[in-house]
Amino acid sequence: MQKDKKILYSAVQPTNSLTIGNYIGAVKNFVALQEEYDCIYAIANMHAITVRQDPAQLRRNTLSLLALYIACGVDPEKCVLYLQSHVHEHAELAWALNTFTYVGEMERMTQFKDKSARHADNINMGLMDYPVLMAADILLYQTDVVPVGVDQRQHLEITRDIAIRFNNAYSPTFTVPEGLFMKVGAKIGDLLDPAKKMSKSSENLNGTVFMSDDRDTIMRKFRRAVTDSEACVKYDPETKPGVSNLLSIYSVFTGKSMEECEREFEGKGYGDFKAAVGEAVADSLAPVQAEQARLLEDRQYLDGVLKAGAANAARRAGRTLAKVYKKIGFYQI
Ligand code: TYM
Q: 90, 101, 137, 150: which has the highest count of C-beta atoms within 10 A?
């Protein structure tokens, strides 16, 4: 194992197709970070079931996300890539950490409040306990760094609180992790309502661009994107949220700096600008989609990746869980 490198952990839920927000805020960075860090990436299917899932669809989405990770450039030879439910230590550590987490803390979580409002018919215990399972994910691997979008900031803070609380109650057991948020793209906005984060579960999906969208759909969604009445392509998230959101997307997909992007559209209208953003996204996604489709044909390879990933993850997770069980006084034979 690469002991000289810091440990980095992140996960994505296999619900629906991913959005370009998931890609920009998370997966794209996973690829860039895999050289520098000892990376562990999970498919969080245990988190996914906090909202009712169709079983067949969940299975399909799981493989689809695995193929997408790899198609985007996450290399299973360099990283640990695995499915959360394959490593039973997650559920076990979550149970222990539950006893170090207060009900009031969970009730105050923004995502819990949002999801409770959206799924009023199914406010299950898992939905409330979601952040504790996420803390277990992160703490099992003695993680130093967690790259996520800003919507996960609160979950990361509670993870740190739980780790510190446990360490103080016994002795240093968990590494206290830091969040890693990108300067550009940590919160991609909905194209029709840029103040809101782009989400898989928006009511109007015309503001959400999926990684699986075809070129025509992508172009149509960007053509309809909300801008402002100034006709000036400038990055200023406060006064120009729509244009700034599009510029962030353009900058990430082209690899150009914000200044370069602004210069490119000097004197041009929003119509040209929006078409250029759509083209850049569609051009970047086409090869990823093709590679994902190719990988999905090779089930044996994908299963092999999951098997190797689970074995590696379980070895590491087992070490932490054993330490925890010893400290809390579970008799060991
Ligand atoms: P999930 O599946 O909702 O989202 C995956 C990642 O995408 C980021 N993201 C965004 N970034 C920028 N702009 C957006 N509009 C946008 N929408 C989503 C999210 O911040 C996230 O990084 N709870 C996590 C999954 C998880 C996890 C973990 C993450 C489970 N265990 C342990 C880190 C560590 C989640 O629901 O992500």
A: 137
**Model pTM above 0.90:** yes
Backbone angles phi, psi at 87, to 5 degrees: -120, 100
pLDDT of 4 > 90? The answer is no
**Measured distance CA(71)–CA(79) in Å, rounded:** 14
47 lines ligand 1 (CB under 6 A): yes
Of all protein residues, the one whose alpha carbon is nearest to atom 34 of ligand 1 is: 10
Instruction: Output the residue whose Cα is nearest ligand 1's atom 37.
Output: 12
Residue among 234, 240, 223 nearest 189 (CA): 240
- The average pLDDT across 150-173 equals 97
Which atom of ligand 1 is nearest the CA belonging to 149? 20
Tell me what the mean pLDDT of segment 193-206 comes to.
92
CA of 26 to the centre of ligand 1 (A): 7
Distance (Å, whole) CA 86 – CA 90: 9
223-239 residues labelled b (16+ CB within 10 A) or e (exposed): eebbbeeeebbebebee
Known active-site residue 197 = yes
Q: Is the CB of 21 under 6 A from ligand 1?
A: yes
Q: Do residues 97 and 169 touch, judged by C-beta distance below 8 A?
A: no
pLDDT of residue 3: 64
316 lines ligand 1 (CB under 6 A): no
Task: Find all residues with CB under 8 Å of 28, minimum gap 6, and list them.
Answer: 72, 185, 252
